[in-house]
């Protein structure tokens, strides 16, 4: 199995040529970014992807943004998805990473909506990976497990930093069994969360060693499951970001770290981690074309 690294464009303000140069230096093969809203922006992104020979993971929000419009109901989300999936299809993404639904809906409504969203993606010929994210239908690990019991066909993007924050602890209690979820993860977003926040100040800091180790163990369980499911490639996006995630010094509002340095460190670290995983499993010694 091969690891394919992607760069998030969340918080990226550098010129495109610099962005591409940096991501290639970090070992990334493409970008993970939102589907642009206008036709002109979509065409510009398509040209950039083709010119730079980059792969693309498309990000779509059923609620219009990270925080869904609270008055909107599932039918409005589905109407938006039709338009967003149509736009995504034209960009030929590897798959769509979908932030879906609203955390305020009751379970029955969540299940009905997510099932219909999955079917809609299939109608457009898109692979859809549902992201675990606060404010969405999958904000809670416990609710997600209940949804899986009724919709086992769903595939997921694992960003468990959100679940750690929601649960206010590392999810490593003997009672915690996430096998049904791990067995359905399609994509990993590698941001390190901790019990009081979705993003540590720096993943290399020794005071967050336990948080990093737990999440790396979780990601390795996903790799093991994917290999058993026959995956020839696995995708991972380091996703440290701004918008209150990146820590700032009080009064000065100075960031405690450079955002790209965090993601570049994470990319290198997980490339090494994956190499160790493959070596321990004996995969590198096989004559496997993947």
TrEMBL record:
<dbReference type="GO" id="GO:0016853">
    <property type="term" value="F:isomerase activity"/>
</dbReference>
<dbReference type="InterPro" id="IPR013022">
    <property type="entry name" value="Xyl_isomerase-like_TIM-brl"/>
</dbReference>
<dbReference type="Pfam" id="PF01261">
    <property type="entry name" value="AP_endonuc_2"/>
</dbReference>
<dbReference type="InterPro" id="IPR036237">
    <property type="entry name" value="Xyl_isomerase-like_sf"/>
</dbReference>
<feature type="domain" description="Xylose isomerase-like TIM barrel">
    <location>
        <begin position="22"/>
        <end position="189"/>
    </location>
</feature>
<keyword id="KW-0413">Isomerase</keyword>
<protein>
    <submittedName>
        <fullName>Xylose isomerase</fullName>
    </submittedName>
</protein>
């Amino acid at each position: 199995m091969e690891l394919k690294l992607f760069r998030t464009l969340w918080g990226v303000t550098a010129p495109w040529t610099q962005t591409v140069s940096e991501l290639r230096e970090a070992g990334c093969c493409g970008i993970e970014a939102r589907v642009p809203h206008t036709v002109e922006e979509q065409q510009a992104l398509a040209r950039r992807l083709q010119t730079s020979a980059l792969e693309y993971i498309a990000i779509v929000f059923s609620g219009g943004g990270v925080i869904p419009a609270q008055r909107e109901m599932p039918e409005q989300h589905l109407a938006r998805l039709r338009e967003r999936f149509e736009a995504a299809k034209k960009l030929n993404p590897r798959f769509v990473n979908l932030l879906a639904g609203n955390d305020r809906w009751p379970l029955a409504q969540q299940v009905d909506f997510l099932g219909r969203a999955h079917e809609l993606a299939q109608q457009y010929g898109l692979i859809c990976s549902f992201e675990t994210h606060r404010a969405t239908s999958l904000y809670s690990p416990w609710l997600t497990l209940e949804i899986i019991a009724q919709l086992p066909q769903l595939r997921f993007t694992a960003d468990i930093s959100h679940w750690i924050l929601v649960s206010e602890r590392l999810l490593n209690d003997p009672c915690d069994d996430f096998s049904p979820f791990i067995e359905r993860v399609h994509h990993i977003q590698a941001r390190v969360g901790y019990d009081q926040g979705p993003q540590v100040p720096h993943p290399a800091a020794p005071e967050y060693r336990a948080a990093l180790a737990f999440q790396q163990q979780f990601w390795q369980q996903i790799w093991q499951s994917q290999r058993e499911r026959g995956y020839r490639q696995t995708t991972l996006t380091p996703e440290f970001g701004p918008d209150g995630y990146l820590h700032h010094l009080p009064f000065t509002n100075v960031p405690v770290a450079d955002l790209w340095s965090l993601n570049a460190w994470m990319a290198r670290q997980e490339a090494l981690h994956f190499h160790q995983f493959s070596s321990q499993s004996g995969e590198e010694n096989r004559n496997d074309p993947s």
